[in-house]
């Protein structure tokens, strides 16, 4: 009887060991299979400015409030215009810094006089909420020097970016973490 | 020759003009860059980087260290207090400091996305976060759940009461994580959605910043968790399914008693997860013939259930495709084309601007649906297999002479330690 019981025990042990091997095998197979597709550097999310259609969903769809996606200024491309499509609303009566004239709903774009007739525009990131209205204005009427970029000092790098999930032009893409910003061309 | 000179000049002029014209076309600026006379220097927009990449590997090191300490606390030291402090640490570090990202629970989707899509390459840290807790589960049981997972930790620290749930209800609810895991893998493999991350209940609390639905869901789960401990781990967590399977085959596992069990039954009611298997030496052995018959019937039922699951999911797949944004867009465009309902969403507007043809879109949709069908068959087989294996497990005759934890369900939380009166014999 005791011998019989021993045999029973060992059969159960055999099943256990077999189960262990079967369960453990994916832990070896998956890394071996994915070894060529593994990147050591990792990825972050970024907006491709050439695909962006300035729909304004970055503002509302980021898991953070305010959004990690903010307007960016490529000064090299800027025409330093007095009548700036990104700074002023369409059809303004006077070109002035009055709130009723400004495109930006939060007043995040600052205007500075450089020399006649040029003005420098800079973005106060603390105020920018990513609505992309200035970007649309600049692309429609100016050089397109304003563009949207996800700020990596704010972005929490979600596994699936919730802006990417709803972006109508699939402009939010994964980029290598060592070159986290894209340039407007 | 002299008469040809004007023509040559004209040709040269035209060439020169076209050259200049081409140059101008390359430059897209409507307004040329001004030449400043006041010595103005063009600034550059300051863009900040993330914290360094090395930090992600620091997180991996912390993960390994935390898992090792938790295993030692659960198996060797047998300290409930120590495990609570581990939970506090993990909640503080992985939860509030690292804000719930990177996490092992969500890494399942990265693995699935990388396995089934050639375009995505998985970050090494995500891979390590997936593999390492499972290796520990295979060695020491669910120590990851006990004190390392921030989602588990926040529930562990807020579970004050313990209300028993009827076994039948528990059995039904415990099936949800399997379905959740199957769907999560299917949706990420088809590049549709990362549902685990999207419906993560506590990440909003960690970040103190999230859509309000996320916060409400998390708060409700925490409230329920005060009475029914660890509701997310038990009835939702998809990574818990893997932990459950791996832990069943663990080499070592936490035990209720430090030495030999005296069958005093003091620990019988203490486990909030009903994960202590009672000793059954008193039970009369069942008729061998009927139990063997049942054993065979249930063994044969496993492939039947797998088949049934596959057929079921294959037929459900078309309605599941709606989670994919491309499929939704295609549906919208089709409605506009056939029934004249205007496609007014931003996705549709983006599609119309993109210059992609409808045929391309519909072809993409068909490809995605095809992938859904293929994947759904496997998910169905997996669900059938887990249900079948669960039922089959009931038919195996077990004789236990001691109270011990159910290795699959036990979270190694150590609540049972203090209920056991047995004192370990001191070695001379």
Cα gyration radius of chain B (Å): 30 Å
> Biggest β-sheet of chain B: count, sense, barrel?
2 strands, antiparallel
The largest beta-sheet of chain A arranges its strands as 2-7
**What class would the helix/strand composition of chain A place it in?**
alpha+beta
- Element order of chain A: H for helix, E for strand: HEEHEEEHEHE
One letter per element, helices H and strands E, the order of chain B comes to: HHHHEHHHHHHHHHHEHHHHE
Strand composition percent of chain B: under 5%
Overall number of strands of chain A = 7
Overall, the morphology of chain A is elongated
Distance between the termini of chain B: 120 Å
User: First CA to last CA of chain A: what distance?
Assistant: 84 Å
Main beta-sheet annotation of chain A? 2 strands, antiparallel
Describe what you observe in this structure.
- The complex is a heterodimer of chains A (185) and B (428).
- With 185 residues, chain A is an alpha+beta fold.
- Chain A contains 4 helices and 7 strands.
- In chain A, 28% of the residues lie in helices and 19% in strands.
- Chain A starts with a helix and ends in a 9-residue tail after the last strand.
- With 428 residues, chain B is mainly alpha-helical.
- Chain B has helices at residues 5-26, 54-77, 80-97, 104-116, 124-140, 143-147, 150-156, 167-173, 176-189, 195-198, 203-207, 212-227, 231-235, 238-248, 288-320, 325-339, 346-354, 358-395; strands at residues 122-123, 276-277, 404-405.
- In chain B, strands 2-3 form a two-stranded antiparallel ribbon.
- Strand 1 (38-39) of chain A pairs parallel with strand 1 of chain B, so a sheet runs across the interface.
């Amino acid at each position: 009887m005791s011998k019989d019981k021993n045999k029973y025990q060992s059969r159960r042990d055999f099943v256990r060991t077999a189960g262990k091997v079967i369960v453990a095998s994916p832990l070896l197979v998956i890394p071996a299979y994915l070894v060529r597709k593994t990147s050591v550097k990792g990825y972050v999310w970024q907006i491709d400015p050439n695909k962006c259609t300035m729909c304004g969903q970055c503002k509302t769809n980021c898991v953070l409030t305010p959004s990690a996606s903010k307007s960016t200024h490529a000064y090299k491309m800027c025409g330093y215009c007095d009548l700036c499509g990104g700074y002023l609303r369409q059809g303004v009566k006077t070109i002035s810094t009055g709130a009723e004239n400004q495109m930006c709903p939060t007043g995040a774009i600052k205007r500075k006089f450089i020399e006649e007739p040029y003005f420098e525009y800079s973005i106060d990131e603390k105020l920018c909420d990513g609505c992309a209205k200035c970007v649309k204005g600049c692309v429609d009427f100016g050089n397109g020097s304003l563009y949207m970029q996800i700020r990596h000092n704010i972005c929490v790098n979600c596994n699936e970016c919730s802006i990417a999930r709803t972006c109508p032009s699939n402009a939010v893409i994964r980029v290598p973490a060592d070159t986290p910003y894209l340039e407007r061309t | 020759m002299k008469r040809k000179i004007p023509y040559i000049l004209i040709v040269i002029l035209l060439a020169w003009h076209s050259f200049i014209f081409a140059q101008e076309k390359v430059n897209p600026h409507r307004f040329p860059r001004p030449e400043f006379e006041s010595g103005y220097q063009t600034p550059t927009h300051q863009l900040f980087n993330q914290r360094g990449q090395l930090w992600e590997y620091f997180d991996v090191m912390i993960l390994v260290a935390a898992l090792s300490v938790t295993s030692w606390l659960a198996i060797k030291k047998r300290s409930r207090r120590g495990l609570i402090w581990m939970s506090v640490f993990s909640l503080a570090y992985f939860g509030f400091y690292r804000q719930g990202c990177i996490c092992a629970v969500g890494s399942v989707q990265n693995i699935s996305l990388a396995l089934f899509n050639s375009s995505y390459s998985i970050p090494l840290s995500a891979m390590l976060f997936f593999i390492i807790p499972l290796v520990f589960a295979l060695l020491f049981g669910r120590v990851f759940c006990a004190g390392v997972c921030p989602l588990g930790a926040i529930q562990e620290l807020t579970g004050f009461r313990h209300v028993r749930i009827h076994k039948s209800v528990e059995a039904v609810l415990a099936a949800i994580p399997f379905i959740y895991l199957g769907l999560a893998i299917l949706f990420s493999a088809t590049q549709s959605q990362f549902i685990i991350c999207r419906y993560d209940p506590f990440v909003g609390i960690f970040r103190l910043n999230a859509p309000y639905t996320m916060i409400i869901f998390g708060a409700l789960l925490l409230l329920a968790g005060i009475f029914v401990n660890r509701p997310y781990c038990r009835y939702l967590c998809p990574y818990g399914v893997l932990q459950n399977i791996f832990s069943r085959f663990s080499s070592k596992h936490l035990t209720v008693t430090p030495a030999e069990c005296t069958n005093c039954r003091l620990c019988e009611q203490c486990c909030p997860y009903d994960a202590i298997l009672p000793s059954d030496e008193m039970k009369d052995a069942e008729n061998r013939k009927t139990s063997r018959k049942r054993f065979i019937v249930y063994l044969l039922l496993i492939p039947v259930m797998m088949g049934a699951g596959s057929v079921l999911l294959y037929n459900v797949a078309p309605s599941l495709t709606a989670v994919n944004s491309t499929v939704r867009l295609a549906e919208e465009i089709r409605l506009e084309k056939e029934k004249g309902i205007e496609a007014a969403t931003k996705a549709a507007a983006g599609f119309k601007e993109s210059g992609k043809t409808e045929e391309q879109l519909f072809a993409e949709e068909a490809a995605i649906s095809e992938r859904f069908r293929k994947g759904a068959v496997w998910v169905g087989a997996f669900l059938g297999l887990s249900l079948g294996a669960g039922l089959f497990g009931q038919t195996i005759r077990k004789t236990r002479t001691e109270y011990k934890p159910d290795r699959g369900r036990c979270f190694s939380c150590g609540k049972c330690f203090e209920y056991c009166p047995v004192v370990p014999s001191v070695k001379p």
